[in-house]
Request: fold
Amino acid sequence: MLDAGHGGHDSGAVGPTGLMEKELVLDVTRRVARLVEERLGIKVLVTRDSDVFVALRDRTSFANKERADLFVSIHANAHRQAGTDGVETYFLSSEATDSTARQVAALENGVVQLEKPAGRGGNGHKVDIVRTILWDLAQSEFQIESERLAGIVNDSMTQSLRIGNRGVKQAGFYVLGGAAMPAILIEIGFVTNPREERRLKDGRYRDEIARAVFAGIAEYKRHWDQRTRAAGDGSPVTRTR
Ligand SMILES: [Zn+2]
Reply:
């Protein structure tokens, strides 16, 4: 699942000459989607393919409902200091996660095995405890995979884009919370930096970004395929469609 940040009345960050994050990230996301679909033969879904507003919780709910194997959210950064530049990649930190939101999303999504129960007590108490443990285990597994994916994608971007490396970070991004799969958020550059804004307007540079994100996803998939082949299990990430 590829997720272009913002959209509609939410323009996201805006650059000094008017480049809007929502427009930039939609275009980059489309380029990434094309590459992943054509070259990896993986089915790609997007949370939006036009200039529409999509609520944050609906983005991961859609990914859960579709049983997506990975969730990659694409954003551009902003900073009060115009000189701030570079790429950074986030994965969800469980400490920072809003567990209520995660729980609500999981319930709404009907991801039965990964559902965190809403209440305590009553006849369902034991089942609820087991479910809670399973949900927490799944979340920590997703977090390990999310961190791995974030590292690979961040390396791929900083190595090929001649851009500052702000590193892999963890934070409680609402858009990543509730995802029942490894999930990352990529900040492809600062639209508020005049030099970066100029580059980010260029179609060829957008292609370079898309290729770098694609290369990261491809490498992650190679690692994953190797590990699951070695372990001999049929993990959902290797599911073919
Ligand atoms: Zn954003």
User: Anything to note?
Assistant: Confidence is low (pLDDT under 50) at residues 96-122, 237-241. The chain has one domain: 2-111+142-238.
